[in-house]
Amino acid sequence: MDCNSGEKMVIKKGFYIAVLFVVVLSQTYTTLHVHAAPLLKIDNSLNDIIILDKAGSSCTSGGASSSSLVGNDNLEKILRFYVGKGLTLAQASGIAGNYKAESGFNPAVIEGGAIAPDDYTPVSGVGFGLAQWTFTGRQQPLMDLAKSTNRKITDLSLQLDYSWQEMEKGIGNFTLDEYKKVNEPDEAAFVFHRDFEASNDSREAIRKNRMDPAKEIYNTYQSSIKDGSGTSPASATCSGDGTSSDFLDDGSFKIYDQCDSQWGSTIYGGSETICQAGCGPSSMAMIITALTGKSVTPPDTAKVASENGVYIDGVGSNWSVSTVLAEHWNLTATKIENDVAKINEALRGGALINTSGAGPAPFTATGHYITIRGVTSSGKWKIGNSNGPRGLEDSKQEWDPATILSMMRQGNVYAISKK
């Protein structure tokens, strides 16, 4: 089972099918932009596959990227990026419908189907990236931005930032003011293609490959991405790996295993157990134990969370788990930005961070809560992870903040401190 740390997430089950289309196009182009036909078909049934962009390697306060992307896959990250810039979900879906046709949401795609290496130099006349930028006039500024921000040209956040720069200044016939007047996702897809992409697609191809997908994307995400929500994510879920182990102790910071035999089978809230759905209370138990000096275990925090309406039956913990448990143990929970500098400031001030995310370690595919417990002199993060033996190993490692930040749920980052 999953434990949800926000709005209810719908997770689609499906087969993991990788389909590669190699498309050879031969036609004459007269516009500033050359359109590449769909190279990767990504439909709604595959939206639960996590596709992580290649994060920058910087551990400095600002990070290498000017955008901290949030989402389970590239499509969700794209939508949340543009909604975070002030567009409606319908307008963001119109853009995404075009990107699906251009690149299948893959920022490394070269026209014709090849995948670019990180050090790729775009070739004039050959489309590249999310929007398949084709000629030097639009490729060179992308390369310049990559160099000035120390990001790889295949980086998703780089290309989204660049696309927004183009939109803000106006490119071709595209202006943000006019685009913001569009209300429907299919209409948005049509306008974005006409003014920004400007391919030679037929009207039927535009409808089938851009407008219809835009409507499907909008319908899929309208319940989880609200207009005006910024980059706030949908629910972050949580699950342990089901493995029971002994009580875990990592030096002076107590690491709890949510599946420990002492409490793993204890019911949390409704029909689920702490092992199945108790990552939120387990993460907070580590924090409370460290800050109060008292032994506060996952069943202690799970009981208080259940009594105070934190648990949602069949789903797990809502986002109030941090504030409710902190207050009960006379601690302060302060919501902070999904930002390396802000998190480091809190850590160096004596706070501990309770947050959630989805992806590979230290999170899980369906989502997981962790504690960020310290920052090293080199800028790396130390964590506390309740996910069984793997969690203990994760807790011993030093983590690049960019890796964790790319998977964290923005809007669910709390600094827990003494009053």
Summarize it.
The chain is 35% helix and 11% strand. By secondary structure, the protein is α+β, with helices and mostly antiparallel strands.
What does this structure look like?
The chain is built from 14 helices and eleven strands. The chain is α+β, with helices and mostly antiparallel strands. The chain has two domains: 74-222, Lysozyme (Orthogonal Bundle), CATH 1.10.530; 267-418, Cathepsin B, Chain A, CATH 3.90.70.10. The strands form four sheets. It has a five-stranded antiparallel beta sheet with strand order 7-11-8-9-10. The longest helix has 19 residues, at 203-221. The chain is elongated and about 65 Å long. The two termini are 35 Å apart. Residues 4-67 and 230-249 have low confidence and may be disordered.
What does the secondary structure layout of this molecule look like, with pairings?
Blueprint: H1 74-84, H2 89-103, H3 136-148, H4 156-169, H5 176-179, H6 185-197, H7 203-221, E1 248-250, E2 253-255, E3 267-268, E4 272-273, H8 274-277, H9 279-292, H10 298-307, E5 311-312, E6 316-317, H11 321-328, E7 331-335, H12 340-348, E8 352-357, E9 368-375, E10 381-384, H13 388-396, H14 401-405, E11 408-418
Antiparallel strand pairs: 1-2, 3-4, 5-6, 7-11, 8-9, 8-11, 9-10
Helix pairs in contact: 1-2, 2-6, 2-7, 6-7, 9-10, 9-11
Number of helices: 14
Distance from first to last alpha carbon: 35 Å
Query: What integer value in Å does the Rg equal?
Result: 23 Å
Shape annotation: elongated
The residue ranges in which pLDDT falls below 50 over 5 or more consecutive positions are 4-67, 230-249
For this structure, what is the CATH homologous superfamily of the largest domain? Cysteine proteinases
Q: What is the number of domains?
A: 2
Strand order of the largest sheet: 7-11-8-9-10
Query: By helix and strand content, what is the structural category?
Result: alpha+beta
CATH architecture of the largest domain: Alpha-Beta Complex
- CATH topology value of the largest domain: Cathepsin B, Chain A
